[in-house]
Predict the structure.
Amino acid sequence: MNLLNDRLMTERSSKCMSFFMLSVLVFFLATEVGISQGTDLPGRYKQWLDEEVCYIITSKEKNVFLQLTTDRERDLFIEAFWKQRDPLPESPANEFKEEHYRRISYANLLFGRNSAKPGGLTDRGRMYIILGEPQDILRTDISSALHPTETWFYQGMTGLGLPAGFHLIFYRRGSTGEYILYSPLQDGPQRLLTNYRGDPRDYLAANEMLKEADPQLGEFTLSFITGDSTVSMGRPSMASDLLVERIELTPTRRIKDLYAQKFLDYKDIIDVEYSANYIYCDTQVKLTKDLDGTYFLSYAIEPDRLSVSQFEGKYYTTLKLNGTLANSQGKILYQYEKIIPLEFDDSQMQDFSHRKLNLQDMVPVIPGHIKLSVLLQNEASKEFTSMEREVFIPGQEPELQMTPLIIGYGMRSDPRSDDRVRPFQNGRFQILFQASRVFMQKDDLWISYQIHGLDSSLRENARIKYRLYRNQEIVHAWTRELSENLELPDFVESLSLREFPPAHYEIQASLLKGDREILTSKEEFDISHAQTIARPWFYTKSLPKSGNPVRDYALGTQYFNDGQYQEAKSILQEAHRKTPESLDMALQLTRVYYALEEYAAVEALLSHFKSPAQAAPLELDLLLGKALIALGNSGEAVEVLAESLIQHGLSTLTLNTLGEAYIGLGNIEEALKALEKSLEIDPDQVEIQSKVERLRKKNHITRLA
């Protein structure tokens, strides 16, 4: 779809407005039915899209903008749009934006005089806005032989992927109308002549006639590119049309427009002040396995920059990390938040200012297809970044498994036997890496992974074969016998990169028995031409080792939200046994009990936390009240819920549950009072409305009887 839009953009005769409408229409029909086509946009936003940024906005940005529904969202998006193009974010001005609007003003002033549309939407306006001022302009005099022409000359734009020297020709048929962009292949010199009567396919004859009328112009009509060798026998090639295509794609070619999708994804989640300030990041996610069989998702986030505040010689900020795990159906299994305060002195700031932050964290996960989403917000700069990754977590059964390769430029061995596990650590081996996986030739490539479920036969007879690929060809290989490894199930290996030229590579590790490949894992990386690379500084969040209630709570919650209640019950019961005074743990366990209809267990556990001297959480009262109703103790439930109303105030949940308790006691009038009060608070409760109507009929019949 993007290719189609880009091709439409390169059509010589297309105007910015018609291109915009056509591309959106095609996108609408082919992909996302229901997206606004822009016709309902308020005038100032339609002008912004159709006239002000039509040459520099990407397809993704345009698509996102059309999905926004409020002016506030559109204003924030426009702010983000210009921030992504600001060449000097630290300066108060946005030099790109200022120059862009200067070019629009100039184009509208000079190129719209003979056109029915703004000058910026003419062919000359389009090229001026994209390329800026030409180094020189050659104009032909009005004559009986030639249409009026302008030849614009450009040099020194190789950094944009354009030729070292090129020109563009615009012509106006007759003495009226706007100048249009000439094409050497589609128009040919004959289109510039006023009275050409020869063969329309004879470019050479037409060019000779043009040279007679204007020798200087005749030198430039067969190709826009200086020294173009593709012009053959006086017939132009496609090179000039391809040049125009490259020019029109120049403003969007280097724009990272992922921010637009992130804006759409997070605009309703993060605070307004953050929404326009997306920053890019490199990320890495790996799966590791603890000795007790628990899998962890280790992840690293390297933001492109880390902004801090300064006060009294100190530099500081606070990062807020929000993580979410969801299953394959999109159901949220687990959510967590971590606050990360950072503070540096002058020497640390001088060091860190030249390096990226590599923030590492980990979360235990249950088996299945899991989507990890992480949102990282910087309170000092009101910037945010994010990552999403889908990972398959194998089952816990003792089968042969190989974890993904973790690769890096260094390794540290941690002999400490403390009670923590760390991200990206296999046993005592922790790899130091850059999330972008970029290496220098002078580096060593360190590789770490685990193989679980190895039986005695494999331990004695199997081997690991390592292969290094470049362009899908093996450039290096070596083998290690499994019996040589004293650290099982953990593996660590290193390879000097000094013999390998800068390129894109893939490293692969395979478990072999004989000639049969049993397991394999691979990872890609790049060797750079750079002689030095600023390595990141690390901030690591670790987790307790096996058996800690914090880990058990995370796993039990995931099993519960995934509907695997027995697994959740087993884990959370053990966690509660270790922390019997933890209300959070007790509540989570009682949620499981209630889902399993073990109401007596709910009552026994929550009654322990009911104290006249201290108000219980609302959820505790509700769970206890519902359990008592299910056990036939509606009278006790009324007492619990009435006390909750006094402590927590009116709540539809509490009133509805209280109504159920009164129904259990056969007290219809009191039940109606509770439910009718609930409807006063929220009239849109359809089920409660139906229940009230039934109770009213029943109460009326009872009174008549």
Notes: The first strand starts at residue 136 and ends at 139. The chain has three domains: 134-254, 279-544, 549-704. Residues 134-254 form one domain.
